[in-house]
Amino acid sequence: MEKEEPAPAMDKQSNSHDSTVDKVSDLTVSELISMPALSQQTTSMPSFPSSLPPTAPSPTNVYGPKSFNFAEHHNINYPDKHRHRRSLDPDAEQHLYQKHHRRRSSNAAAAAVYGSSSSSGMHLETRQSQNYYHVDKDKWILVTGGAGYIGSHTVLELLTQGLKVVVIDNFYNSSEESLIRVQKLVDGTLEWHNVDVLDAEALSTIFKKYDIWAVIHFAAMKAVGESAQIPLSYYRNNISGTINLLQCMQTHGVKNFVFSSSATVYGESEATPVKETAKLGPVTNPYGRTKLFGEDILRDLYNSDHSWNIVILRYFNPVGAHSSGLIGEHPNGIPNNLLPYVSQVVQGRLPYLRIFGNDYPTIDGTGVRDFIHVCDLATGHVKAIEKLAQRPGCVAYNLGTGVGYSVLQIVHAMERATGVSIDYKIEPRRPGDIAVSTADATLANRELGWWPMKQLDEMCEDMWRWARRNPGGYDGMVMLSDSGEQEIGDDLDMDD
């Protein structure tokens, strides 16, 4: 639940990569390795929990019958295209290969575990033969708040999947620069407009201009502490804005909806890992109440009209950044969890880290939380779009790793990533804080075919790469390479 702390990492067994997985793609790994800019890639399979088999047939592609062709998708053999991606350094090219490789392995493993049945009694391999419809790639996905932290990473992933995306954002706590940089990472059909979800007339104009298939709704104010100081602003933006959007969708006949919710809806539950069936509330802050009430609105809407298809995603503590270092969390507000504070200490923006309590019944006495990489969250939203194509009704899923990390484990991981010793001070516990909070994401594993792929060290490394190369975020700053050379922007002032 979006609280500032994290259990020791669960032991995971690395499974060898069986040749069966390679057959999922049109190209073999050996063919991929032989291509320019990929000759130095490794082909090791990512780690899975020991209970997961390493290989399986590929699940059905809900976008249509055509199988995925890596070279065609990324235009590797067509250097005149994708001029933005071609300009990236080898690390960015390596990211493209590794991301596709992880996705193939993850989907294959999910199909092996759940291919025989799901909670609804369907076979993954035969879903296309069921009475479902496909994600219409000729239509648009509308992403509200798409210039924000999670929104921009999700837009990137949607474009990577070949979907057309239109973003609306009022840029209150985000930057248009994030979308410009998304275009540097992937070629695709992306448009955006400065529109507030509270502006019904402007919203209607967007729905008239674009043939929209589904909406992913991120646009909201999001700081727990701030919500207690300006509650009316939170209720107006987060609740009235959601109602405004839903009314506009209903008017224009768009009834596929993905809602960005939060683990705060579970309140101060002592149960861990938390299942979706856990009791919701009581929630003690206005931000969490807006998310819980938003969920209630969606359940009431579906109960009144079963033609709606709604996926609610409750995520725990989003951290990290895109591995390219081009997009990440814009530091123009109060951080929502521990890692941004740790990063600010490393950068010298804070003198030390405040740790609240060291007498919890945990591995080292500090609180334990479930942290999830923002790119894994982005993949979860794409899986949610695919779920809408199965007409699910109104369903909620946890998105978390199921692995908890203590505050001190986070501190030590950031020290490894940065090479900097991090000062901290122990302070008394805060009222309402609980010892451990982790997600049970079994339902998302089973029904969405979604698995988080990134572990703690990678979260910290990616976050530090973003913070180091973009010391002031997006606004008026340069982007620095790892060597400290200027890449993007105007002037650099480390005191800003």
UniProtKB/TrEMBL annotation:
According to the entry, every stretch annotated as the NAD(P)-binding domain falls at: 142-463
Q: Which residues form a coiled coil?
A: none
Q: Does the keyword NAD apply?
A: yes
One example of the protein's molecular function in GO is: UDP-glucose 4-epimerase activity
Q: Mention one GO biological process in which this protein takes part, according to its record.
A: galactose metabolic process
Designated name of the protein: NAD(P)-binding domain-containing protein
InterPro entries tied to this protein: NAD(P)-bd_dom (IPR016040), NAD(P)-bd_dom_sf (IPR036291), UDP_G4E (IPR005886)
Locate the region Disordered: 1-27, 40-68
Which parts of the chain span the membrane according to its record? Answer: none
Q: Which cofactor does it need?
A: NAD(+)
Q: In which pathway does it act?
A: Carbohydrate metabolism; hexose metabolism; Carbohydrate metabolism; galactose metabolism
Reaction equation(s) it catalyzes: UDP-alpha-D-glucose = UDP-alpha-D-galactose
Question: Could you tell me what this protein does?
Answer: Mutarotase converts alpha-aldose to the beta-anomer. It is active on D-glucose, L-arabinose, D-xylose, D-galactose, maltose and lactose.
UniProt keyword annotation of Nucleotidyltransferase present: no
Q: Name the UniProt key words of this record, in alphabetical order.
A: Isomerase, NAD
An example of a Gene Ontology cellular component annotation for this protein is: cytosol
Family named by the database record: In the C-terminal section; belongs to the aldose epimerase family.
* Source organism per UniProt: Bifiguratus adelaidae
